[in-house]
Each structure stands twice: as C-alpha cells, then as structure tokens.
Amino acid sequence: VIALDGNLIITRTIKVGEDAVTGIARLGARLAIVDRTGHFLFVDADLTSIVSCESVAGNLEGLEWDPHEKRLLCWGFHGKEWMLYDALSKEELARVPCGGGHRLWSYSPLNQRLTYLRDRQLRVVPMPRVDTLQTALHGLEVRTVQCLEHGFLVTGGEDGALILSRQSDFSVLHRVLFPAAVKAIALTGKNRL
Predict the structure, then answer these.
(1) What pTM was estimated for this model as a whole?
(2) Which of 42, 71, 80, 130 satisfies CB 3.0 to 4.6 Å to 100 for a cystine?
(3) Beta 113-118 vs 121-126: how paired, if at all?
(4) Alpha carbons 147 and 131: distance in angstroms, whole number
C-alpha cells in the first residue's frame, strides 16, 4: 500500500477466498475485506494477524462501513435478487427481485438507492431506513433446531455456530463457535445438550 505522500506503508499478500476482492472497509483498528463469493476476512489494520473469517450466501459486489448507523454494509446478489446485508449483526436489511447480477446495476450507499436496467427501463429503488427486516441467527444455512422447555431454542448451522435463543423474539442468549458445521444437536436428559 502506498500513502498519498508516496511513502510505502505496508506490503503483504492476503488471500480472502477464491474470487476477486470486491470491497475493503476500515473499522477502527481492523480491516474488513470481502470477495465476490461472500468470504469475509477481518484483519488487524497493520495486516499482521487475521482476526476472523466468515461467509455470506450470495455474490457480493461491495462493502462499506456506515459510521452513523454502526453497520458494515455489503451488497450483491443471491440468485435473481439483489440483497443488502449488515455483516456485523448478520441482518438482512433489504432484498429486491431485480432479475440477477447479469444486468446493468449500481448501488449508492450514500444515497441508499439501487438502480438497475430491466425490460429496457431504468428502475430506481430507494432503500427504506429500517432497523431490521430479518434477524439472522446464522450467517449460513441452519442445519439443526431443537426446541427446549420454557421457550428456548437451540440452532446449529453451516457457519459452525451453536446458538441458544428465545423463541419469542430470537434474541441470542449464548453463542459457541466450532471449527466445522453443526449438523446435529442431541439432548441428554432434561434440556442438556
């Protein structure tokens, strides 16, 4: 990386995933890097250590930190729909059925507008300011669910997370991360995992 004054700051090669890097955002002392296939890498700003690596379903085309909303926005396509996602809270913020990423399109985080061409018409979709459309317990596919007494729910997913939450509002009470996907949950006795 070369600073505006021409001095060499840092050089290091970091592999994120299998495809092109489509976004880099600074979050305090860390950098968030995303590639087109949805792989996220969080690294220290000095590029000396990898903090975490995550994945999002879909083809991601952009990434930006929103300091006012405290959101790490990423956007791209999942099938024939354009999606806007907060990578920190793992919340889907918007989804637009536009026909897919093969058409001409543009998204402006500053103006919060998706513009795309479909059926020879230019379409502009303003993104509503909402808190949350959907709370995502897992960053990837949920593989197993167990309902417990007293309104609790335990889920396991492809992201390697085992999550204890309330059934009423899906608020996360506890999260344990494993190095591989959680595909089954077994209860031993009364509400013991």
Answers:
(1) 0.57
(2) 80
(3) antiparallel
(4) 27
